[in-house]
Amino acid sequence: MALISILGGGESGVGAALLAKSKGFAVFLSDAGALKENYQQTLRDNEIEFETGGHSLERILGSQEIIISPGIPEKTDIVKAIKAKGISLVSEIEFAARYTKAKIVAITGSNGKTTTTLLTYHFLQSAGLKVGLAGNIGQSFAKQVMEDQHDVYVLEISSFQLDRCFQFKPDVAVLLNITPDHLDRYEYKFENYIASKFRIFQNADTSTSCVFWADDEVIQSNLAKIPASATFKTVSFQQKAHAYITAEKIQFDGAELLLADAPLKGPHNAINMAVAIVAAHEAGVAYTQILQSLPLFENAPHRLEPCGVWNGVEFINDSKATNVDAVFYALNSYKQPLILMMGGVDKGNEYEVLDPLVKEKVKGLICLGTDNTKLEQHFGPIVPQLFATDSLEDAVLKAKEWAVDGDVVLLSPACASFDLFKNYEDRGDQFKNTVKRLIHG
């Protein structure tokens, strides 16, 4: 019996183990850290061998194929050893896609992935389709494929997952945008990260709908990476496209969406909505059905999420904005004066692109992190007032002190959260709770 090993025992790894076992493989799961108890119990219940706290390299290297968690970098010793032996090393997405005949809509991009994925899922589900939600969101793709209950899957896919996709061929492949991010995983070479994102299109042919934002300069300059036989579906502010966005509306073929009536605001969300609508249409749903279901959509937390009003001051949780481009979109979404909270673990950010918007809109900057030096040095000369702290409570109190009726206090960090918080969700939840406690008592 051929052995498949799984590196990493999170949601995707345990799901991949279950699918591999159901397909008749011998399965061994190895995690260098600790496994959640519920995952351990699932593996025991299904008689799947596993280890924690390290990797049994010799056993793993005896595998026919290895499925790797996207959180494990390519430069680790175990990955180098696997590559040296020439063993097939794939992502859960690549592995699971082999075993389903369901239609697949796959969505990637540096920003807006989750909102666009949730929108597309909402449109397809509202149309009565049996829809699975997976990838970076929802339950394991592999586990859902094993259960075989869906007509279509909507997958949010990261560059790390794409790096280990080779034959993966979605029916609808979506690329939202490309801005510098995660460069520490790509030898600090932007071109490597770009190549990773374009892997979403690598197997596209005449049956594939390739949906992308045509105004993105990086995408435009790399269009030759998309197979010419694929069907291109474009979204644009600047030119007639399959979804043409103006200041007032999005125009589709025979349908339109008035932006004043849309549940999501800001130019970036106009793009997200347009892309999701085109993707759902390419997956087989009529524009009229899609637009009827749009007003019922509710976005995920931590994305420009209102979390309280105090004396006419609105507090907004945008903790998911972990890079500069996401903050750029957030700043563009408001006309009111802003008190901006930024900071955390800097990922090699270049903040110059934010300068015009900060000068125009930000009346005060609050730097929240263990090391705020870079933010203070860059923005200190261009903001009227700046406060640096490693205390979330002090940050909210300072915002409360500075704010007047009509202002917006915006947590949009541009940085990872790991200096003070477990993750961006924890940062956003703590911000919401602190706002609630300090302004509402």
From TrEMBL:
Cell wall formation. Catalyzes the addition of glutamate to the nucleotide precursor UDP-N-acetylmuramoyl-L-alanine (UMA). GO terms for molecular function: ATP binding; UDP-N-acetylmuramoylalanine-D-glutamate ligase activity. This is UDP-N-acetylmuramoylalanine--D-glutamate ligase. GO terms for biological process: cell division; cell wall organization; peptidoglycan biosynthetic process; regulation of cell shape. It is found in: Cytoplasm. Belongs to the MurCDEF family. The keyword Cell wall biogenesis/degradation applies. ATP binds at residues 109-115. It catalyses: UDP-N-acetyl-alpha-D-muramoyl-L-alanine + D-glutamate + ATP = UDP-N-acetyl-alpha-D-muramoyl-L-alanyl-D-glutamate + ADP + phosphate + H(+).
